[in-house]
Amino acid sequence: MGAGSPDASGGRDIRDVAVVGAGLSGCLMAVLLARRGYRVRVFERRPDPRLGAGDEGRSINLGLSQRGINALRHAGLLDRVLAHAAPMRGRVVHLPDGDLGYHPYGTSDDQILRSVLRHDLNVVLLDAAESAGVALRFDARLADLDKADGAVTLRFEDGAVVEAGTVIGADGAFSTVRARMQRGEPADYHQEFLPWGYKELSIAAGAPGDRRADPESLHVWPADGGLVVAHPNADRSLTGTIFLPLTGPGGFDALRTPDAVRAMITARFPDLTGLVPDVVEQFLSQPTGHLVTVRTAPWHWRGRVVLLGDACHAVYPFYGQGMNSAFEDCVILDGCLDRNAADHAAAFAEYQAIRKADTDVLADLSAANFVELRDRLSSPLFLARKKADLALNRLLGRRWVPLYTMISHTTTPYAEALRRSRRQNATLAWLACATAAAGTLLIHRLSRQGK
Question: Ranges for the FAD-binding domain (predicted)?
Fold first, then answer.
């Protein structure tokens, strides 16, 4: 049965696919489907980003880790993406007193992250989709979705009506496909906003050797009531993101004048003004972004509609896994289609069964890592615990792997990584207690001998 021909029920071929959303996961999934011989059409509400300035101001730079690398390699696109990426070998921590700390990301040279601008990555994926024969349509804002067993009908705000055998919703955290798919169905949906927002900052390339602007590190400014994170770019500049509460005395709502912004930056992030002389002007000119977690079920409907990425599991950006987990969705869904080529209902059900528990764990990890970045990076006890983790990893290899390493440098399922980390933490706590008890006993014996 050729793509686009009727199926046995008289409806459209399930291999006639409409992808709603030409972002990262939508484009990657379109490439994988086109290579399977599917007819793929992608609909995007925005203009073509290849013709404009891109997404500056709306999103945080992306850290490509092992899950994303694995997905891009699976699609044959890794080299094209790495040409636009900058390595991040560790984390430079800018402390309020002006001191700098450095924390490597792993114990070997290959355990690094890659920083890439969302716009650059999206352009690579759009070009790859177009080259694979995918039809792209921009300025197409979805208004409604009519479900039927034979075909799904998409209705757009400009009046266009499109029928497809299968619809993939890759249209983000506020997905129209998800809302219309779940309408009239028994569905769970939970959305949680972080009471913090963000603005982007551009940081020019620093002088060679200046660790304050190291172009091969992630930069973090932890502060009381604030956080700045900056990713390197291929041109050695940094793209910074300043996170603050949305409301309150030190929040975005109160920072509307140059004097207020300057006072806040000076108090919380004193070395930032030296790196970004126009930080006040940038701050006031940028929009405030919001951060949301989405948990929902089901992710699919009758083999005709399925969700990807943020549409089914949006997370906060603080573990750097939003893009990577969305790319991993594509690989896992592709594998499910391998095993259930003629039965999308079975493929989609298997995909959700594999992914749902893991992405729920990722949401919790991402929220917890926000607290780590904001409050704990300057804690000697916390840093000692991290160093102990890395030392045990060097000593024991795969028998002891830090949680961050499992999440960022392997494709270990998120839930399994958390279980393993908890077992390791329990072991470390037991060893600490045993060591303390042995030390106390030794001191007691020595004191008795001295009498």
Answer: 16-333
Q: Is residue 236 part of a domain?
A: no
Let me know: does 70 contact 146? Beta carbons within 8 Å: no
Statement to judge: residues 364 and 386 lie in one domain? no
* Nearest CA among 26, 17, 8 for reference residue 311: 26
> Is 246 strand, coil or helix?
coil
Region 372-394: what's the mean pLDDT? 74
- Digit-coded pLDDT (tens) for 391-435: 777 788 788 888 999 999 999 999 999 999 999 878 777 766 777
> Does the pLDDT value for residue 54 go beyond 70?
no
Q: Is the pLDDT of residue 6 over 50?
A: no
Find the helix or strand (DSSP H, E) in which 137 lies. strand 135-137
Q: In this predicted structure, what is the pLDDT of residue 448?
A: 66
In terms of Cα–Cα distance, which of 100, 381, 308, 313 is closest to 217?
A: 100
**Which pLDDT score is estimated for 263?**
96
Alpha-carbon distance values, 304 to 26, 40, 148, 314, 344 (Å): 16, 14, 8, 22, 7
Alpha carbons 348 and 426: distance in angstroms, whole number: 37
CA 385 to chain centre: 25
**153-159: long-range contacts (C-beta < 8 A, 24 or more apart)?**
154/18, 154/20, 154/43, 156/43
Residues 16, 4: Cα–Cα separation, whole Å:
5
pLDDT tens profile 137-151: 999 999 999 998 888
State the pLDDT confidence band at 4, using cuts at 50, 70 and 90: very low
What does residue 303 show for φ and ψ, rounded to 5 degrees?
A: 70, 10
Residue 243 has phi, psi (to 5 degrees) of -105, 130
- The closest alpha carbon to 62, from 106, 23, 94, 21, belongs to 23
Closest CA to 112 of 133, 89, 137: 89
Q: Distance between CA atoms of 217 and 88, rounded to whole angstroms? A: 4
Question: Which residue, 321, 351, 371, sits at the end of a domain?
Answer: 371
pLDDT at 46 over 60: yes
Main-chain dihedrals φ then ψ at residue 226, nearest 5 degrees: -170, 165
CATH for 29: 3.50.50.60
- The rounded distance, in Å, linking the Cα atoms of 173 and 171 is 7
